Amino acid sequence: MKAVTIKQLKDELAHKSAQDLKELCLHLARFKKENKELLTYVLFESHDEDGYIVTLKEEVDVQFDEINTHSFYYIRKSMRKILTGIKKHIRYSKKKETEVELLLYFCAKLKAFRPSIKRSVQLQNVFDTQLRMAKKAIEKLHEDLQYDFQLEVDNLLDNE
Q1: Is 88 helix (H, G, I), strand (E, B) or coil?
Q2: What is the pLDDT of residue 25?
Q3: What predicted TM-score, i.e. pTM, was given to this entire model?
Q4: How many domains does one find in the chain?
Q5: N or C: lower Cβ tally within 10 Å for the chain?
Q6: Are the C-beta atoms of residues 152 and 106 closer than 8 Å to each other?
């Protein structure tokens, strides 16, 4: 079975009743954890973006604390897992401010991590890439926010 386009889905959903749409959403939520997480964000957390960011930062803190530091292999694997989760939550939000804040927070945690990421080229590359992505997202923000976030970026780069 081939999936139809978004436009076709949109046109078809326009003809559905509120009850049918509710049942479709619940049906989607049963099949995939990501669908359920997205619905949770949209229904319960999208109105309080600051609270959402704080919750995600707390989750990231817990994940960083649980990293196995016996080998850089395990550290890299854990970092990729944390970053995948962050990227997923950024997609849910679709707000550049949230993206920048979470990426900068990840970079700050990565930079402060012990053993130092400077001993691993791959981890240093992850840091550089995420910082570059944060800078790109900062360019799309309002000037005042750009200034505030640029100070954070400069602080991350100064401590090297």
Answers
A1: helix
A2: 86
A3: 0.86
A4: 1
A5: N
A6: no
